[in-house]
Design a protein that fits this description.
Blueprint: E1 2-6, E2 9-11, E3 17-24, E4 29-38, E5 45-51, E6 56-58, E7 66-71, E8 76-81, E9 90-100, E10 113-114, E11 118-122
Parallel strand pairs: 2-11
Antiparallel strand pairs: 1-3, 3-8, 4-5, 4-9, 5-6, 7-8, 9-10, 9-11
């Protein structure tokens, strides 16, 4: 099982970016897919997540600006980021929790899988 994230880059304040992440492998379902971020000198924080039945939540600082969406059939998760601010600058990580194989068994005891980070820089 692997997570592959993409979509980071440099954008001006007020601009938009879209991050995408795909989980590959023999996966029948994923309980939660999420995006985290880690800014320089700060701890990693949960930005947004979506459950397998469509429940979503966001950190307060991105509500109304970021939108998470997932495709359960393709095991992908996207995050649309609008009205970006310099304080959104960080390395963004894709996360998947509770992955099941074709037999319905949890991979790795249900522990999290992480993609490699993708850098988002918001600067003029």
């Amino acid at each position: 099982v692997q997570l592959q994230a993409s979509g980071g880059g440099l954008v001006q304040p007020g601009g938009s970016l879209r991050l995408s992440c795909a989980a590959s492998g023999s996966i029948s379902s994923i309980n939660i897919m999420a995006w985290y971020r880690q800014a320089p000198g700060k701890q990693r924080e949960l930005v947004a997540f979506e459950t397998s039945n469509g429940g979503k939540n966001y950190v307060e600082s991105v509500k109304g600006r970021f939108t998470i969406s997932r495709d359960n059939a393709r095991n992908t998760v996207l995050m649309r980021m609008d009205s970006l601010k310099p304080e959104d600058t960080a390395v963004y990580y894709c996360n998947a929790h509770g992955l099941r194989d074709a037999s319905g068994n949890y991979y790795n005891g249900g522990m999290d899988y992480w993609g490699k980070g993708t850098l988002v820089t918001v600067s003029s």
